[in-house]
Design goal:
The chain is an alpha+beta fold. The two termini are 69 Å apart. Residues 497-537 form the SWIM-type domain.
């Protein structure tokens, strides 16, 4: 029989008393908690008390008893508590001789139910040991199935484990604030990476650049082509992550730079690129950079890389045209918009200057003036950046989209959870990088080790190229050699060049160079060179025709260098550095109204995001604050906002019903309310700063270990430059505490739950907006509906929107296959004419006439019926008839317009 406590029981130490309470709780299915306690040190008792007792007085109470819970909230949401005023308790007190803890009072009658099942579900019984928690963290970090982990834990521990318990294990491991100091230590000690930090004069975090020695080696070996883009929603502080990638000699994608920026403005992006340049001397060999059409980014790239071929991703180009050329923005009709987009798409894909000029003339003659002026102002002067002509592909290795970066972004998001802490993001980032490097290196090694079964003869030119080049590069060269055998037209021009003509036009060629797109893009010998060398009886193989980046030995040496640095293993090198850049702004330039408005607009957009991230009363308070600010500024009143930080006992911020503005009617006070603009600009190296105002730069220094806990000290020189008088002075600064840099506030997760568009049974919810009848639908919506009546599958509709012309084979063959909706008088099949060939449109017209001659309709639910049936109703949206009985209705709807469930 289990031992029960009683008054007078003595325990020679607190550990024994605690053990007895635990046994009592297990025997009576009660969770005890320390309700009240007074230590020996705080009791100030004169007599001697044994130190192992720790407490002079001690009270354990049932978790349903003790102090009564009183909510300090506004009771907007329902709250729950374990407290039920249960009287069960056990009171201990030091004995008179001071040698034991004695039970002086005990109450064992609960005012609530107790059982083994209820007891097993309490938090204290579900708690896991520290070792078990670490094992669970490892499983969760590997994204193991939570239900499988739950089952495994319950079998091994015999405890009740909920899915929320598993979530809490990872949540408790995440600090509420980002610790930049710890992140920098991880980058240095674990990954041997160089890190550059950007902060402003208020010590706010503005940027973090990361690059490993392996990334530097890759950049040094393959600097010709770069792609730059950002990915979002990876960090809980809501900052974008920029990636720089290159294409190696085996046509594989490699990351050579990572940067987190607090702002995507011109100054921060300049610091990012200048830091990248300072760490990679091979930047002078960059020939081509691909980005999207962001004006700030492109201006900065042109300034930092003045002689590169700057191109825009074709996907982003077409997406911008689709967004900007709209009926609302341009004031045009749907048919005019369609025609404009068709012609502009032809301009994008025009391969020659003659084609471009032909389509350009068509654009001028056919589209509305607003569209033509928009195109001429924003796109025509930069056509080499987006038109897929000859100039576009120079040194691009035939890349015309950012799919390489998008693929890496998808891999990042497959491992890195959304809204991750910075430290978790860094570890997951290098997990992805290590995996990509392993797969890429394995593919490169197998390209060297494994040979094709049907190999070329040993002394053949093809065999020599195969041995010299990487597998992917050799595929390209061998294909060009094979195609070159079909070229027959070779003539000599007056200037001594050979003119080679094929299906794609004429090119100027010599035995070692060519002006065709393939040669300019790949930096490898093309079919024209091989055809000319064969025509002149010159050996096809020439080592000088191949750029060194595609040579197999370059890949091998790079693999050996990376293996020696041990990038797959924890770093033991002390060569990594951390640099901190500090920027301020001196004399402010005089801005025009448009410039002032643009600067304010960027800030207002951020304010709108911050306000929208909150809900309920807090959102209303922030909205009212903005309204009040607008009213006060409209009256030309100076305003100072005073932050009020009020928190409840659970450390949760709640709303204060008070006015957050302090208004000063005196206009002289405005000098204290001036906005301080902090520039992010930090240009490293010998760069002209004459137009940037007063700038302070902390040069890069080697990071030294600190004896202080959680601090990474940096010793640096601050170069203070006054660009107005070109003077410079140096000030020594010691022990910059990186842990004091203020990180951005984490953004709480907000979003719509899954299935929010469905009812509990899984049917679509009724839309809040009123459905439109077919006659009131837009021109585009009518076209889409009528297209689906006739095409064989829905994918053809998407192809038609992308420029495909509807042909006879794409259409249904029999009248019975066409929707009965075409019998309605409001359906005009002539809307299809712009998408069809003449034969296809004639077929559509004949099918409709045949169907109308039969004058037969069928219920779209059961398939039976005739046109004179008065027990049916027609949907005003999709124009399909349905039996009233099939809809579950008892009578015909009385409303003039009725919509089925699919339309409503």
């Amino acid at each position: 029989m289990p031992r029960m406590l009683k008054v007078g029981d003595r325990f020679t130490s607190f550990a024994d008393a605690k053990k007895a309470i635990a046994e009592l709780g297990d025997n009576t299915y009660t969770t005890f908690w320390k309700r009240d306690a007074r230590t020996i040190a705080s009791s100030k008792i004169a007599r001697q008390i044994k130190s192992s007792l720790i407490y002079y007085q001690l009270v354990y109470a049932c978790n349903h008893g003790g102090r009564k819970f009183k909510s300090s909230g506004k009771k907007i949401r329902q709250s729950w508590t374990f407290k039920e005023d249960c009287p069960v308790h056990v009171r201990f007190k030091a004995s008179l001789d001071g040698n034991a803890l004695e039970v002086t009072s005990i109450q064992s009658q609960h005012n609530h139910d107790t059982s083994k099942v209820l007891y097993a579900h309490t938090p204290s019984q579900r708690r896991l040991s520290s070792n078990m928690k670490e094992s669970v963290k490892d499983y969760l970090n590997m994204k193991a199935n939570r239900k499988m982990i739950q089952q495994k834990l319950q079998e091994s521990t015999g405890k009740i484990i909920t899915l929320q318990d598993l979530t809490n294990i990872t949540k408790n491991d995440q600090s509420k604030t980002e610790n930049l100091d710890n992140c920098l230590k991880i980058l240095k000690t674990k990954y041997g990476a160089h890190a550059a930090v950007l902060r402003d004069v208020d010590n706010n975090f503005r940027g973090l650049f990361i690059q490993t020695p392996a990334m530097k080696s890759t950049m040094n070996a393959f600097p010709e082509f770069l792609a730059v883009d950002a990915t979002y929603k990876l960090l809980k502080i809501g900052l974008p992550v920029f990636l720089i990638i290159v294409e190696d000699g085996n046509c594989q994608t490699e990351i050579v730079g990572v940067c987190i920026l607090a702002s995507e403005g011109r100054q921060s992006f300049t610091w990012f690129l200048e830091t990248f340049k300072s760490e990679n001397p091979a930047w002078i060999n960059v020939k081509c950079i691909m980005t999207d059409k962001d004006l700030h980014e492109r201006e900065v790239i042109k300034n930092c890389f003045p002689n590169v071929n700057l191109i825009i991703c074709v996907f982003h180009t077409l997406k911008i045209f689709y967004r900007e050329i709209s009926c609302q923005k341009m004031g045009i009709t749907p048919s005019q918009r369609t025609l404009s987009l068709e012609l502009i798409q032809k301009l994008v894909y025009a391969k020659t200057d003659d084609d471009y000029e032909k389509y350009m003339q068509g654009l001028k003659d056919s589209v509305p003036r607003t569209v033509y002026e928009y195109f001429m102002k924003n796109w025509h002067n930069t056509k080499d950046e987006w038109n897929l002509g000859k100039n576009y592909f120079k040194n691009s290795f035939l890349n015309n989209t950012n799919n390489r970066l998008e693929s890496i972004n998808a891999k990042l998001k497959s491992v890195i959870n959304k809204n991750s802490p910075l430290e978790h993001f860094i570890n997951s980032l290098f997990t992805i990088i290590s995996s990509l490097e392993t797969e890429r290196d394995h593919k490169a090694v197998y390209g060297i080790l494994k040979k094709p079964v049907d190999m070329f003869p040993e002394d053949s030119d093809e065999r020599k190229y195969f041995k010299l080049l990487t597998r992917e590069a050799s595929k390209h060269v061998l294909r060009e050699i094979r195609i070159s055998e079909q070229i027959r037209s070779i003539t000599v021009s007056a200037d001594g060049y050979y003119i080679i003509t094929d299906s794609r036009g004429s090119t100027k060629t010599t035995v070692s160079s060519c002006n065709c797109v393939m040669y300019d893009a790949m930096i490898l010998p093309c079919k024209h060179i091989f055809a000319l060398r064969r025509h002149l009886h010159v050996e096809l193989f020439d080592r000088m025709l191949v750029n060194h980046r595609q040579a197999a030995n370059i890949i091998t040496s790079l693999l050996e260098d990376n293996e020696s640095t041990g990038y797959h293993l924890p770093c033991t090198s002390n060569d990594s550095t951390i640099s901190v850049s500090l920027t301020t702004q001196g004399h402010q330039p005089i801005y025009s109204y448009a410039q002032r408005r643009k600067k304010c607009l960027l800030l207002c957009t951020e304010l709108a995001d911050l306000a929208a991230q909150r809900t309920g009363m807090l959102f209303e308070q922030r909205l009212n604050l903005l309204k009040n600010l607008k009213t006060l500024w409209a009256n030309d009143t100076a305003v100072l906002l005073t932050p009020i930080d009020v928190r409840d006992e659970n450390d949760r911020q709640f709303i204060v019903e008070s006015n957050d503005e302090v208004v000063f009617e005196n206009e002289n006070f405005s000098e204290f309310c001036n906005e301080v603009v902090i520039q992010d600009l930090n240009i490293l190296g010998d760069v002209n700063l004459s137009s940037l105002g007063h700038t302070e730069v902390i040069e890069e220094v080697n990071m030294e270990e600190s004896n202080k806990e959680n601090e990474v000290p940096v010793t640096a020189d601050i170069n203070v430059r006054d660009c107005n008088n070109q003077s410079q002075q140096t000030v020594q600064v010691n022990d910059i505490n990186l842990s004091t840099i203020k990180m951005p506030v984490a953004i709480k997760k907000r979003g719509r739950p899954k299935g929010q568009d469905l009812t509990v049974i899984g049917l679509p919810k009724r839309r809040k907006r009123k459905p439109l009848s077919f006659s009131k639908k837009s021109y585009q919506e009518k076209q889409d509906l009528i297209l689906n009546f006739f095409v064989q599958n829905g994918d053809i509709v998407k192809d038609i929107k992308n420029g495909k012309i509807l042909e006879d084979l794409d259409l249904k063959s029999f009248p019975e296959e066409i929707s009965d909706a075409v019998l309605d008088n409001s359906v005009d099949v002539h809307l299809m004419k712009t998408f069809c060939t003449d034969e296809a449109f004639n077929k559509i017209f004949n099918l409709v006439e045949q169907k109308r001659l039969k004058q037969h309709w069928s219920c779209s639910v059961c398939g039976a019926g005739n046109q004179n049936d008065q027990t049916a109703v027609c949907c005003s949206g999709c124009l399909l008839w349905k039996h009233i009985r099939c809809l579950g209705l008892s009578r015909r709807p009385k409303s003039k317009q009725w919509f089925c469930r699919n339309c409503y």
